[in-house]
Amino acid sequence: MTSPAPAGPPPSGEPLSAEELLATLRRRWKASYDLQLVQRRGRLYLQVMWAYLEQQSFPLDAEAYTARLADLVASLNGLGVAAQVRDWLNSTTDRPRLGKAMSLPLELPPGRASEFLL
Length: 118
Fold this sequence. Notes:
This protein has helices at about 20-30, 60-80, 80-90, 115; strands at about 35-40, 45-50, 100-105. By secondary structure, it is α+β, with helices and mostly antiparallel strands.
């Protein structure tokens, strides 16, 4: 009989889940930060914004935030960048600060960029 595998991030080739992404944000920075995909100068970036769900002034409720996170995760998995995002969120030494988003320039697999960048 084997013991269960230790809990931790899934192997880097696995797709992201909204639950994993939210758990990572809360573990790293103790808050559910807003995440956005941003296109700038022909590049696509994942940005961790300074606003977070637990703030009174945050414009979304928990249900809308969860739905938005699920849509974002579906896009990241569709782009084939789950491993990049997972690795960056688990290793970056930066942290979200008021007025300054953290940005990850996404390295899209060949052929994927044309689907998302117009």
